[in-house]
Design goal:
mainly alpha; 2 domains; two-stranded antiparallel ribbon; 5% strand; elongated
């Protein structure tokens, strides 16, 4: 998972999409009965499936799933409502009978996350928060005061909490609070991030990143020892390949960075952080 930034300036087609969204939301808010609100959401569900919107959300993250960091390829791109639109489930999987869903955010652009089908279906309507006292039950209440159990790729502080080990398995970052550890574990489980194929591919990325790093160091040392221009050129090429793994358009770029940061070496951290 890497930090996703929603552009401040929207393209014209997305601006038009947003205008229509505001109109639909106004219709939903005007209805007093919750079942009627839900009917309106269903009636207009194709609006969040608009091809222009899907393409825009996909382009923001270089055609990568916002959670798994894998390219979509031929996989269907699904718009996931971060805050569920019609009802929510508690952390234990039971229905939250006191909450009718975030109906007022059903067509809110900032409530959308683009992901593959498997994470979206597994997450479903789960949306527990750390303190239920701050749960927003209507558009009149501030949902921004909530601390969800799900990590959010739109929040840098959340993205920092997720790490990986040498086997590509997602884990909580070292040294964080138990509350955040619980949030990380819940996110991994409900978005199906600890999946065998994903772990294998992340492990390959981890090993490749470290191999390039050590090869760069060794080649640089040998170039200095022998005053070889050829070896110095090779070292530069290896550094370029390594830095390409950190680019946001590369699959598992966060894994590649983490593999170097966890070495704890100044040079590795500087490379991973883009200092050089």
């Amino acid at each position: 998972m890497i930090k996703i930034d929603l552009p401040a300036v929207l393209p014209l087609d997305i601006q038009a999409w947003k205008v229509r969204s505001d109109e639909i939301t106004a219709l939903i808010l005007a209805e007093a009965d919750i079942s009627e609100k839900h009917k309106l959401i269903d009636q207009h569900k194709n609006h969040w499936r608009a091809p222009a919107l899907i393409k825009w959300l996909s382009d923001i993250n270089f055609e990568k799933c916002w959670y798994t960091e894998t390219k979509f390829g031929g996989d269907y791109q699904e718009v996931e409502h971060y805050r569920p639109k019609k009802g929510t489930k508690n952390i234990d999987g039971t229905d939250n009978v006191s909450h009718s869903g975030y109906y007022w955010l059903a067509f809110e652009l900032s409530n959308y996350r683009l992901c593959k089908s498997r994470p979206n279906r597994k997450k479903g309507t789960f949306f527990p928060i750390v303190d239920e006292r701050f749960r927003a039950n209507s558009n009149a209440e501030s949902w921004r005061d909530e601390v969800p159990f799900f990590l959010d790729p739109l929040k840098a502080a959340d993205v920092l909490l997720l790490s990986f080990n040498d086997n590509g398995i997602p884990v909580a970052q070292d040294g964080i609070h138990q509350t955040d550890i619980n949030r990380v574990k819940f996110t991994i489980e409900k978005y199906f991030l600890d999946e065998t194929v994903l772990n294998k591919r992340r492990s390959q990325t981890w090993q490749t990143s470290r191999a390039l790093y050590y090869s760069y160091l060794n080649t640089t040392k040998e170039a200095n020892d022998t005053n070889s221009i050829a070896l110095r050129t090779k070292a530069e090429e290896e550094l370029t390949k390594l830095r390409e793994m950190f680019l946001p358009q590369s699959e598992f770029s966060s894994v590649a960075k983490e593999s170097l940061v966890k070495l704890g070496e100044v040079m590795a951290i500087k490379i991973a952080c883009g200092v050089i």
